[in-house]
Amino acid sequence: MYEEILCITHKYPPFTGGMEKQSYELIQGLSSYYRVHIIAFEGKENKLLWFLKLKSRVKKLLKANPNIKLIHLNDGAMGVAALWLQKITQIPVVVTYHGLDITYPLTFFQKKLIPKLIKYKGAVCVSKFTSEQCIKRGFDPKTTFIVNNGVDLKLNEIPFDSAITRKLVEKYGVDVTDKKIIMGTGRPVKRKGFSWFLKNVMPLLDNDVILILTGALKKSQTFFDIFLRCFPKMLRHKIQLLFGYPDDNKEVIEQLKKQRNAVHLGRVSNEDLIQIISLADLFVMPNINIPGDVEGFGLVALEASVRGTYVLASGIQGITDAVINNENGTLLPCGDSQAWADKIKEMLSYKEKLKILSEKGRNFTIQHFSWQKMVDEYIQVFDGFIH
Fold it and tell me: Are 247 and 291 in contact (CB under 8 A)?
């Protein structure tokens, strides 16, 4: 007979993103081992309303299913929103932490809320860096575990479509003929290092190198942009972190205007993104240190690696759990533009060597970062609290 658990998540399909994907794959995987009850925000009602109704829904579900042995919350924000669980039930509660949900630099959060998060029975951290941040804040090392995120290995099975070269011209106005291609993707937030890379690394590269960036990029100011200007700089920064605000957006646009060999395609379809990554010679993740803002893991690096594109990444924070130096990529000094430029030139100079390293990286990622491996490690953690 299957043990019963309850998974509560506010990051779930049909919404897309790394945390939504991780939450979905985890719950699907756990369902083959436990009887899983799910309370998930799926966009069928207002999110605030969903949170307001959450307590009564949980109470009703627990009453109807008295054999539930463990509750899992998908992130630190969910942990804060469900602190009442510590009073209404003795069932062990385990929370997954991703990075910013433990380092968020608001004094009230750090001084008042984290001591309450510590009282949950267990913590699962997506990287060694996140685990260190938890333990530094008083979490019990004996009940704080590291389980790396996985990557969709089915990405490896999608064939490369050479028509993407023509599509880049016809749909996006980008000609990559005789170009060596560097690729990067993600939201334009400062910690991602896109404007830094454009400003400091691109001018050091040869003229036959082109940088292609993708991800949301706003070309004009919104009401929220104007509203934020009313706040002092430090408070503005905290609001930006809380809402995942694209605080590098303006600088990225300014730097793109100054570069001949750099383009930003904005949002692209998942199909196009996969093919552009495959077309690229290198995938870059040039993160920089921003106080209070952290990279808990490096899922996009794993997705690039699975597509057979070699990864260069900053050796900081949770990225070092996803990119293993000289295995599925190379870790470079954060903020060292010359080191980045030198490594890029070296990699692009030896196509055959790069091809061998890319294939080695693909195989390493497939072997070490499957969703099933992640699920198995969660099961091991959960069983320790259930039995």
Answer: no
CATH number of the domain residue 215 falls in:
3.40.50.2000
Q: Which domain holds residue 14?
A: 4-150+370-386
What SS3 state is found at 7? strand
**SS3 at position 151:** strand
> Which of 268, 270, 315, 277 minimizes the C-alpha distance to 295?
315
Conformational region of residue 178, where left means phi above 0, alpha means psi within -120 to 50, and beta covers everything else = left
Each residue's pLDDT tens digit, 258-304: 998 999 999 999 999 999 999 999 999 999 998 878 888 888 999 99
Q: What is the pTM of this model?
A: 0.87
- Name the residue among 136, 100, 64 with its Cα closest to residue 292: 100
For residues 142 and 61, state if they share a domain: yes
**Sign of the CA dihedral running 184, 187, 193, 194:** positive
For 178, what's the count of Cα atoms within 13 Å in the CB-facing half-sphere? Answer: 3
